[in-house]
Amino acid sequence: MNLADMLTYADIGQLSRIADHYRCECNGHSKHELIQSILQTVGRRDFIERYIGSMSMEDLRFLNTLLFDGRRQFSLEELVACAQGSRFTEDAKERESPREMITRFRQQGWLFNGTTQQTRYLFEVPEDLKQRFREALERRFLAEVKAAAAEPPMYREEPEMLSADLLLFLQYVSRHDIPLNSEGVMYRRNQSQIMESLHVSEGLVGKGWRFGYGRRFKDYPNRFALLYDYAYHFRLIQENNHRLELTDTGVVYLTEERKEPMIQFVRFWLRLYKGPIPNLLSLVYWIVCCSKEWVTVSSLFERVEPLIKPFFYDSPASIFEERILQMMLHLGMVRFGEDEQRERYVQASPFGKQAVQQIHKG
Q1: d(CA 46, CA 286)
Q2: Could you give the strand order of the β-sheet that contains 237-240, starting from the edge strand earlier in sequence?
Q3: Is 279 helix (H, G, I), strand (E, B) or coil?
């Protein structure tokens, strides 16, 4: 539902509060005049840009969550959780509560109650405002990233490699007796052999802090952990009596030499990583939008850093580099480039642009 429709359903009290906030000059007792005045004010071409430019970072994070959350309607408790999640530090002792933030967004005309008996206690953002906010944020972000002067002479990409390596991994499991330790983890000898057989090899995991990014993330390197968790989740492999084996489904999959669509890996990665990175979908969206042409990695990070919440010992920089950008390379969504001065660049691949569109369509 668009803003005009939601204003029609709003009571005159809320309309008056919105009109007062924007200092609309109209008859406060006429619902029609209130609606027309609000629409004229909010509909100005530069209104959204000016509004976004004046927002605090907490407000911007909260708005970003509402724009990219898959839900069209939110309960009050869900909105409170979103507002709380927009706060990355506790350095401000005297500031509004999440409920006060929600009230302010309602007074500004960005949040409205549902219009039916079943949705009257739910909240939503008008669809046309969502679109205008996205477009305004995209213009702002694009203006702040640094484009490459020319195409990097060297670049790296991994199209379809994850899909091909899934088959290679299943082939290895089918041809070897793979023992597991007491924690259900392959011994390093088998891990090394698997790495040597894949298109993209990684160093094995050493001692240190690792958790939060998947079932076997603590045991295996980043890319292979995603591959392993994918195969386990879709019951292509099983950990049976301290042995790693193919399931019947895995045997059929391997026999038919199926080629897993890369979009399936992308969707699985988003589900797996959204716990430690709740706004991962929006970050992927902005990275792809800002890198349709070659841009410097450093300027891209500066743009999205305020949206990245630290996760225990993972800083925004490490989350951006290792958990998001590097994984997007493995998923075939971006390519990395480098020039003679060792400046690093990134560009969204055609598949990356297509994947973002598919994800947002559901």
Answers
A1: 21
A2: 178-179, 243-246, 237-240
A3: coil
Type of residue at 277: I
CB distance 128 to 2 below 8 Å: yes
Q: Judge whether 19 and 34 are in contact, CB under 8 Å.
A: yes
Hey, what amino acid is at 315? S
Is 38 in contact with 18 (CB distance < 8 Å)?
yes
Long-range Cβ pairs for the range 179-184 (8 Å, 24+):
179/242, 179/243, 180/239, 180/242, 180/243, 180/244, 181/242, 182/242, 183/219, 184/239, 184/242
Q: What is the DSSP annotation of 169-229?
A: HHHHHHHS-EEB-TTS-B-HHHHHHHHHHSSS--PPP-SS---SS-TTTTTS-HHHHHHHH
Contact, 31 vs 12, CB < 8 A? yes
CA-to-CA distance for 213 and 299, rounded, in angstroms?
A: 26
- Yes or no: say if 190 and 273 are a contact pair by the CB < 8 Å rule: no
Residue in the structure block whose two tokens are 């007062």: 20
User: What is the 8-class DSSP label of residue 306?
Assistant: G
Tokens 């944020």 sit on residue: 137
CA 69 – CA 28 distance, rounded (Å): 35
Hey, which bits of the chain come out as E strands?
112-113, 123-124, 154-156, 178-179, 237-240, 243-246, 295-296, 334-338, 344-348
Distinct helix (H) and strand (E) counts, the chain: 18, 9
Q: In Å, how far are 50, 290, 327 from 141, measured between CA atoms?
A: 14, 7, 22
Q: How confident is the model over 230-263, as pLDDT tens digits?
A: 999 999 999 999 999 999 999 999 999 999 999 9
Global model pTM greater than 0.90: yes
For 171-196, how does the pLDDT look when each residue is reduced to its tens digit (9 = 90+)?
999 999 999 999 999 999 999 999 99
Phi, psi of 344 (to 5 degrees): -100, 140
